Amino acid sequence: MLFELNAGDWIAAVSGKGIDKGHQASDLAGIWQSGSVIIRGRTVADAIEELRPWYKGRILLANDGVGAKRVTGIYRLSDPEEALRALVEPHGGSITRITPWLMIVS
Q: pLDDT tens digits, residue range 39-63?
């Protein structure tokens, strides 16, 4: 599959769902370099996948209902626990830290 991308366009491979594509303001390109990630209209479950590499432990999603909710925002990668809280609390979800290496999203 071949995609032509112009300034501000993006694509992402979404596990089990194919290719997701969109456009963002070009002034936000490279925002990850400042320690943040932009999530637009993705599910909480997909957003958790974006945050996993930045957390040294495991993140378990124990509530599929919360995982299916759509979120949009800019989240700090330097504090994955706070980013997770910002993702799930508006949808009635919560984060439980079991150890420094395990968080459960419910």
A: 888 899 999 988 888 889 999 999 9
The DSSP line for 41-84 is: EEEHHHHHHHHGGGSSSEEEE--HHHHTSEEEEEEETT-HHHHH
Residue 8 backbone phi and psi in degrees, to 5: 90, -10
Q: How many CA atoms lie within 13 A of 5 on its CB side?
A: 14
Q: Which residues pair with 61 in a beta bridge?
A: 105
Query: Given CA atoms 94, 98, 103, 106 in this order, what sign does their dihedral have?
Result: negative
- Closest residue by Cα to residue 48 from 35, 64, 34: 64
